[in-house]
Amino acid sequence: MPELKFDKDKCAKCKSVNCLTMCQYMKLDKEQAKMEWQKIIKGEYSFVLESCATCYACEEYCPQGNHPFYLLVERQEQMDKLASPRALIKQWVNMTEFSGKFMVGQVKERAISFCFIPRLQQIANGKLFEDVASSWVMGAEFFCNAVFLHFSRMSVIQNRLPKVIDNISKQGIKELICLHDECWATYNSIAPAYGIEVPFKTTHYFEYLHNELVKNKRSIKLLNLKVAYQRNCSTRLIPQVDHWVDDIFKLIGVTRLEREYDKKNALCCGALMFSSKGYDLGTDLQKRNIDDMVKSGAEYCVFNCPACWDPLAEKVAKRGVKPIHMIDLCKMAIGEKPALEVKI
Amino acid sequence: MSGIYESLVKIVGEDFVSNQQEELYFYGRDPGVMPPHKPDYVVMPKNTEEVQQVVKLANKEKIPIVPKGGGLALTGLVIPLKGGIVMDMKRMDKILEVNAKNRYVVVEGGVSQGILKAFLDQNYPDLRHSVPEAPPITTIAANAVIHGQGRLSQQYGFNSDMVNGFEVVLPTGEICKIGSCSVSPYWFSKGPPMPDLSGLFLGWLGTTGIITKIGLKLYPKKRLIDVEVFVTDTEDIIPDVVYKITHTELIEDIGVWSQPKPRMFSGNFHLNIFFTGDTEEELELKRKIIYHALQEYIDSKDGGFMQVPSDLKAAFLANPQKTMSNFADLRKGGGFEYSGPIIPVELYPQFVKKVQELGTKYRVIQNASGRVIQQGHCMMFSFAFTFNRADHDELDRVRKALHEAAEFGSEKGALLWKPTLYEQKMMIDRMDPNTRNLMKKVKNLLDPNGIMNPGNWEV
After folding, report:
1. Is the torsion defined by CA of A22, A23, A24, A30 positive or negative?
2. Taking residues B101-124, what's their average pLDDT?
3. Minimal Cα–Cα distance from A174 to chain B, Å?
4. Could A87 and B303 be called an inter-chain contact, meaning their C-beta atoms sit closer than 8 Å?
5. Which of B267, B292, B310 is nearest residue A310 as measured by Cβ atoms?
6. Residue to substitute from A52, A76, A279, interface B, most B β-carbons within 10 A
7. What is the pLDDT of residues B300-354, one digit of tens each?
8. Cα separation of B67 and B77, whole Å?
9. What does the pLDDT read at residue B326?
10. Which of the residues A98, A126, A303, B103 has the least number of beta carbons within 10 Å of its own beta carbon?
11. Cβ of B233 under 8 Å from any chain A Cβ?
12. Is residue B313 classed as helix, strand or coil in its secondary structure?
């Protein structure tokens, strides 16, 4: 099984312990943080294992790129200090098991991954996708499995990811356009952290959209919108893609409003907080986040991840902020109709 | 029995009586696994007087008579075991009165769940009745007399507890009113403060009379409804979970279910917790209280609330739900049957283990479902199996599994709901002898010639 490339010496020398001191869900001073983190490294019990909200943010906060979150998820599993109820973990493991059914379109060397989310297929249409729309893969056989970071099951990722990569390669795919942020994060953060080779090029859909918009620049009508961006958990694994958000917004005349809960201080959509921690944390997160969007004067809330859409879109809309997926926003800029809408 | 056909034609008209083989074939069976038996005649009366005349004829000629609503009990309750007349009530489909202020409705004996629901939705959007999870063609009266349960049973009890009175044709032909309607123009009580005679007809499976009118309680219908699904891998905690969640006194309905397919549900136990509100605030407050009631299980990781995809949520919120119909079609052969013991909630873990055991032992696809009745006073449980009707070996295995389920239930102290003949016998055999004798006296008093749905409740 692939092993995590983790250097405990880097942590021993670390002066910031940002992984825990910057955590939005636990309050630890530097001394406590150091002590608790050392326990985790040694495989000893730490309350952090159970208090972790699995927001992924410590991966971004670590100045050493030492993968503290991946280690923490491994320890949760090893010590049976789970982030989520066992039944929900079992449900996800069952639901995403390899089925032997290869859901594919007319796959060419350049193909789209809809991950495990059929809804993405509904969104990815129109001019921006006309060259690649028919070349796609989807379902358990091609599922990145990064979601198991929420479920204290790094072993599922370790076991399944090489097979998933193999399945994609066997389709003859040379470039995979990842429409789910989490997939790109898997191939560009988790895979290298575990020394898993990815033998095809991966393109984040932000980059893809940007390039397509440039190609279709003449069709763009500036939207002149002020938006709040809902930064999702997996972007914490790949902060290097964040600039694409700004680049796309610039091309289509959208202003990303400065607000308290964006960038490094982004708040999770709350979906899994309800499941794994209960009503109070989930509600508090969503309330603070939406209040902040409203306060910032946002006309739209732009979603990156479809999984954030379900718990947040309707609630955002009810507060007068229109929810829209990034792909739909780009389609709107070239005069096409958004696919995902909320009726309230 | 010469001249019976002509006599029936005289009563209901030629178009509504039949002794043709194709109709006798159809009325000789139900969709379950019980063996068929043809009637000699089928009649469809239009009103109480026609029912009365048919019953008087049957009583005079000592011909068996079996009243039939939707015919979907699945346990053979409307199969005419001794031939005779099947009386299909579907033409008696009028909604006679809605008293909105006093929240009750009076309907004829053949009014279906679907007709009443559609009528209320359209004309009285603030009111509703307890709709069972059954096809809409099932009837109000039949569901009440088999002690059915529905969406409101967690709050208000069995659907039979929601009866407000009857007009009934006795086996000897008298038309009798039961409840407040016997002394008052209002149908607001099935008995109290008088002797409650509704018990002479509820649970008797059509062996003591034919319901021609039924008064039914209606209940407030809130503008909004939602469902949260609590999931655990530990069946042993479910009685406690039900206890805690019913303590909130806020829940409309609780369905407990487990099934091995589709794969995502395998190995877990699910509680669908329904709640309602007139405003978003009311709904949200209830959601908060529900989560808080079960927080200890989230903390211990013994259970949690799943994210319910929008299509699944829509399926759960449908009333009646089609989820069981989908399960029934898993084997693509049109076969579905269940044994439905009513159990104390504390027995749930034992029963759900038994379902799993039977599924494995008889190699059949199983589903275990339960509906909590009236704040957890009991639970309607079901051992459900789906099968391909064309696969006789599988059908036989399902029969055996159901048989073993019934014996298990009976041994554990359950009451078998809408029991097959065999299950009725099991309960009669276990019954206190004086209770059995009382039933016999009641039956003989009401039906001296034994014409009503003979074979059933034969004590």
Report:
1. negative
2. 98
3. 32
4. yes
5. B310
6. A279
7. 999 999 999 888 999 999 988 887 777 777 788 878 888 899 999 999 999 999 9
8. 10
9. 76
10. A98
11. yes
12. helix
Residue of A nearest to B311 (CA): A310
Task: Enumerate the β-bridge partners of residue A203.
Answer: A177
Beta-strand relationship, B41-43 and B85-88: parallel
**Cα gap A254→B197, rounded to integer Å:** 73
Whether the CA torsion A42, A43, A45, A50 is positive or negative: it is: positive
Chain A residues within an 8 Å CB radius of B306: 88, 91, 275
For B46-60, the pLDDT digits (tens) are: 999 999 999 999 999
Q: Which two tokens stand for residue B442?
A: 């009641």
Cα Rg, chain A, nearest whole Å: 20
Provide the shortest C-alpha distance from residue A144 to chain B (in Å).
18
Q: Do B206 and B459 contact (CB within 8 A), yes or no?
A: no
Give residue A235's identity as a one-letter amino acid code: T
3-state secondary structure chain A: CCCCCCCHHHHHHCCCCHHHHCCCCCCCCHHHHHHHHHHHHHCCCCHHHHHCCCCCHHHHHCCCCCCHHHHHHHHHHHCCCCCCCHHHHHHHHHHCCCCCCCEECCCCCEEEECCCCHHHHHHCCCHHHCCCCCCEEECHHHCCCHHHHCCCCHHHHHHHHHHHHHHHHHCCCCEEEECCHHHHHHHHHHHHHCCCCCCCEEEEHHHHHHHHHHHCHHHCCCCCEEEEEECCHHHHCCHHHHHHHHHHHHHHCEEECCCCCCHHHCCCCCHHHHHHCCHHHHHHHHHHHHHHHHHHCCCEEEECCHHHHHHHHHHHHHCCCEEEEHHHHHHHHCCCCCCCCCCC
- The Cα–Cα gap between A149 and A140 comes to 17
Going by C-alpha positions, the residue among A121, A119, A155 that lies closest to residue A136 is A121
Residue of B nearest to A308 (CA): B307
Show residues of chain B in contact with A275, CB under 8 Å: 298, 304-307
- Above pLDDT 70, what percent of chain B? 100
pTM for this predicted structure? 0.94
The one-letter amino acid at A272: L
Whole-number Cα distances in Å, B418 to A38, B143, B149: 63, 10, 11
Helices (H), B138-231: 140-145, 153-156
Torsion (CA) B125, B128, B133, B134 in degrees, nearest 10? -90
Q: Which amino acid is at B337?
A: E
- The whole-angstrom separation of Cα B207 and Cα B203 is 9
Contact B246, B203 (CB under 8 A): no
Give this complex's ipTM: 0.93
CB contact at 8 A, A171 and A182: no
Cβ pairs bridging A and B (under 8 Å): 71
Instruction: Please check whether residue B363 is in contact with residue B246, taking contact to mean a CB–CB distance below 8 angstroms.
Output: no
Give the 3-state secondary structure of residue B301: coil
How confident is chain A (344 residues) per 10-residue block, as mean pLDDT? 94 95 95 97 96 96 97 98 96 96 97 96 95 96 98 98 98 98 98 98 98 97 98 97 98 98 95 92 96 98 96 96 98 97 85
Residue B56 CA to residue B210 CA, distance in Å, equals 12
CA proximity to B180, closest of B129, B116, B106: B106
Cα A137 → chain centroid: 19
Query: Minimal CA–CA distance to B363: which of B381, B345, B344, B386?
Result: B386
CB contact under 8 A, B233 and A90: yes
**What angle separates helix A279-296 from helix B280-293, to the nearest 10 degrees?**
140
CA distance B277 to B226: 9
Q: How many C-beta atoms surround the C-beta of residue B360 within 10 A?
A: 11
What is the structure's pLDDT at A213? 98
Cα B28 to the center of its chain, rounded Å? 20
Chain B interface disruption, residue of A50, A82, A86, most B CBs within 10 A: A86
Task: Please tell me the distance from the alpha carbon of residue B252 to that of residue B375, in angstroms, as a whole number.
Answer: 10
